[in-house]
# Entry
Amino acid sequence: MEWEVVIGLEIHAQLATRSKIFSAASTAYGAEPNTQACAVDLGLPGVLPVLNGRVVRMAAKFGLATHSSVARRSVFARKNYFYPDLPKGYQISQFELPIVHDGYLDIDMPDGETRRIGITRAHLEEDAGKSLHEDFQGETGIDLNRAGTPLLEIVSEPDMRSAAEAVAYMKKIHALVRYLEICDGNMQEGSFRCDANVSVRPKGQEAFGTRAEIKNINSFRFVERAINYEVERQIEVIEGGGEVVQETRLYDADRDETRSMRSKEEANDYRYFPDPDLLPVELDQAFIDEVEKELPELPDAKRERFMQDFGLSRSDATALTGSRELADYFEQTVAAAGGEGKLCANWVMGEVAGVLNKEGREISASPVSPELLGGMLQRINDGTISGKIAKQVFEAMWNGEGSADDIIEKKGLRQITDSGAIEKIIREVLDASPKQIEQYRAGQEKLLGFFVGQVMKATQGKANPGEVNKLLKKMLAD
Amino acid sequence: MFQKSIPELARGLREGEFSSEELTRGFLDRIGRFDEKLNCVITLTDSAALEAARVADARLKNGDATLLTGIPFLHKDIFCTDGVRTSCGSRMLDNFAAPYDATVTVRLQDAGAVMLGKTNMDEFAMGSSNETSFYGPVKNPWDLQCVPGGSSGGSAAAVAARLAPLATGTDTGGSIRQPAALCGVTGIKPTYGRVSRYGMIAFASSLDQAGPFAASAQDAACMLEVMAGFDPRDSTSIDQPVDAYAGMLDADLSGLTIGLPKEYFGAGLDAGVGAAVQAAIEAYKKLGAQVKEISLPNTSLAVPAYYVVAPAECSSNLSRMDGVRFGYRCEEPKDLEDLYVRSRGEGFGDEVKRRILVGTYALSAGYYDAYYLKAQQVRRLIRDDFVQAFREVDIIMGPTTPGPAFRLGERCDDPVTMYLSDIYTIAVNLAGLPGMSIPAGMVDGLPVGLQLIGDYFAEGRLLNAAHRYQQVTDWHTRLPPGFE
# Structure
């Protein structure tokens, strides 16, 4: 039987605020346990939450960027359950009335197809603390630094049909929240993670199969692997005559498998109700207009502009707009180079990306700034250096040897364009190769390459290749 | 000295007639003499009080004193006090010394008021008789066989016996007004949002509101002015200036329209209480007020709606008492489940458990719409009743309670009868209105309370009406026998 996979994602993006969603404690990562948890975060008797206004603005930005409705009225609710790292015995979240709902995002698949993924809702909530099971010999330590960290939970429609689509969607959301500067996207630190709802159904069947929810996946690679594993598992269960049970599963990256955490029967009744300690969040059109004005250019619009303004292909433009930092780097390079978008794109996606990748660095940590790179590309453009020499110059710039002009000067890499000087060198090469001249003149025209090579060798690659070709042909014909 | 009003005490302190230290010692002596009988105080903070009194004396000398500087008060044990046990009347928090001060605590401290100690109360403010306290019941000073009312029974009884000139209370369904009525003192529950709830241990967040107990409306006005005000740490507190209540007390009552809801004078009302309330209304007529019968048609729905909303909120609010970070923890828990079950099972008393169970049920999947949502709808109807009424009248009056203080133990096994002692007070909380109880007579040696209900933020009007009544009556000046 042919199976169809159905996937929906719940992405948790930690909002990049300095203080927590309901208290003034810092959200900085990596502090000593329980040093960033105030009375409110500890859930002491008598404390009350006060909403951090920044998170509302951030959520509204996300809503506007995903063609969603930003609710004029949204309500915080309590999700009640007991767990030691949940200090109040309830998590403040949004339930019936989320701040963002009914939007979508278009994703580009490698085969060139575009898929539209529905966004059901995005709601604000607080994160829980952490239980530390190691280092305490049979006991559990609780670190409440993370308790009260603001999260935006972005819930998609079950619109994805493969693990690859799920990853593409997750990557696009990841890029988007960083464009919007509402989340740092740091997956190692847990700032961006997701739960995947996965089910399978016979191809052509309309009704969904029973789904399993895979919790807390914190890398793109793991999302792909976890979903693929889970799909295979479910198909095996069904084809083996069994039934998939609705349950929560955990992905174990070390073993590359998903394991059951709890079944539907064991699931909590969260007893949601509106939090009486917080007022409904009421937004007016003026606020929404204001946020709209603050929106940066979004990836899709930027891609269109790059194609339009710089004559880039769709795939180049997509790659360059994959992150805001990369897109900015590219645009700054173009500015410094005084145009030549295509050349800039080739360099940014080629040499720059290649070395960064090899060294495991982010574009923001590139030792070659867009100004340096653009300066060098200008020298290619004006004929000072050839593309080949430029690679040498780039390497020197990467090693901190200064600007392209400095390096060209210091290393004497200036291209020889003076035809008199080139003629002189050609003459010397021709004088040293009488036999080859004879063969060439006898009809072996491919020997032209040999002469070019000799000239370039004699000039250490600095002769202008076009000029060399032209002059050579002329002189050999004489 | 212990029978002086707040303005008189403030004048005495300023004129050097007595120092705050002397005043404080005087009230500490009274606590020492009488509290064994009454059980009003859970934690006495005598040495801190004397220290605070000396600081107040210095302030008085420097001339930067407020009206309350140097004046002693007792603090309901529901307000967090930095470094001092805040038990909320529960075994669960018997070992809990709050590491911070409630906003109300800070405001009173900043004004220079001197805290003598923390008062007894029904466990987590759940009760109408003070019998659910882990620290034992409080006795009514008018009759030691009777309850003082609840949940702020310790504060009400303490002011009645003049163990302190002032005390704080909280009112979720009548917990200031009902004990004020039963103990013969003045108590006011302000408009929801008028006093900060920060640091006040939550029972039912959408209903809880703090207010003062005092011997008179004038004294209550002095204390409320200090307690009230916007607090950025409480999202439900309201950013609106506080009226100068003490300055509004003397306004003339002629032209005032008093509404008498017919639902508050029907079956179930004790005849003696009814007669006392009628006599009070007559006094108001003499003061120039007009009286109009009104109807609050949804009154009978208030108690059932309240007993869904309040338990629902409390079931969630009390989840933090889990034995993990503070408070009571059972001995030798064998695993996490056991830790939760036994810590909460042993730490909470029966009434608290009953309400947690009821509230948990009301919020459960499949029942939420039928109970919680329905109760919230009823709440809107009740609010609309009042809004409608205040289009016609300025103040609503009636009995605070259906009867005078009942005997200890009498209603312990009958929660529904117990819940009905708040039948006239609960609707006010559901609507978020200010309400007040003042002494207005005696029935068989026990005080009767007159309830005054005002429109939103009409505390000044209520205190004014109460004060004018107290100018022409002396119920509020009477002292229970044996407490001279």
In short: Chain A has three domains: 3-290, 297-411, 419-477. The first helix of chain A runs from residue 39 to 42. Chain A touches chain B at residues 39, 42-51, 78, 80, 82, 84, 87-90, 142, 269, 271-273, 276-279 (CB under 8 Å).
